[in-house]
Design goal:
Layout lengths: L14 H16 E3 L9 E3 L1 H50 L3
Antiparallel strand pairs: 1-2
C-alpha cells in the first residue's frame, strides 16, 4: 500500500499543486474506470477500498456506540449513588424518630 504523506513542498510547486497531485494519485489508486467507451468515464471503487470504507464506517459506528454506552454507564453510577444516599437518609430519619 502506498503512503502519500507530504512532508515538505517541493520547490517550484505551491501547496495547492502538491495537494492536487496527491488527491489525484489517491483517486487513481482507489478507483478504476469501468467504461469501455473512452468518451464516457465511469469510475468504480475497487473492491479492496470498498471493504476498507465499510470497515471505516463500522469503526465510526462502534466509536459512537461506545461513547453512548459510556454516558449511560456514568448516568447509572450517578443514579445509584443518589439512590443509596437517599436510602441511607431515609433509614436514619426513620430510625431516629420515636415510634
Amino acid at each position: 500500500m502506498r503512503s502519500y504523506t507530504i512532508l515538505f513542498t517541493p520547490s517550484g510547486f505551491t501547496s495547492n499543486q502538491t495537494e492536487k497531485a496527491t488527491v489525484s494519485a489517491l483517486f487513481h489508486e482507489c478507483y478504476k474506470s469501468s467504461g469501455t467507451n473512452p468518451d464516457v468515464h465511469k469510475w468504480v471503487l475497487k473492491a479492496e477500498y470498498y471493504f476498507r470504507l465499510i470497515e471505516h464506517r463500522e469503526l465510526q459506528e462502534a466509536r459512537k456506540t461506545a461513547k453512548q454506552s459510556s454516558r449511560n454507564a456514568h448516568l447509572a453510577i450517578i443514579v445509584s449513588i443518589f439512590m443509596s444516599t437517599l436510602s441511607m437518609i431515609v433509614a436514619i430519619c426513620v430510625s431516629g424518630s420515636p415510634s
